[in-house]
Amino acid sequence: MPEEVLFKTEEVRSRTEIADALVAAAEQIEDGTVALDSPTDDYRTGVPDEARFEVELERLTDSETGEQRYELEYEIRWTE
Known about the structure:
Blueprint: H1 15-31, E1 33-37, E2 42-46, E3 52-61, E4 68-77
Antiparallel strand pairs: 1-2, 3-4
């Protein structure tokens, strides 16, 4: 089954703005409906009472510069 991206946004935000967005997302998840909005798109989806929750922290090193980049990902998965 091919992957279908329903919504995606990426932007630079301050740490406080990121925390505020995560708090708002947590409140929506707890209520059972998540609203995803960007200047060009929006999407709404229901979240079931139980879902798989994954937290992942990665460190990646640029092969040319040696600079290290970190990625912290929170992922929620469920089937319908």
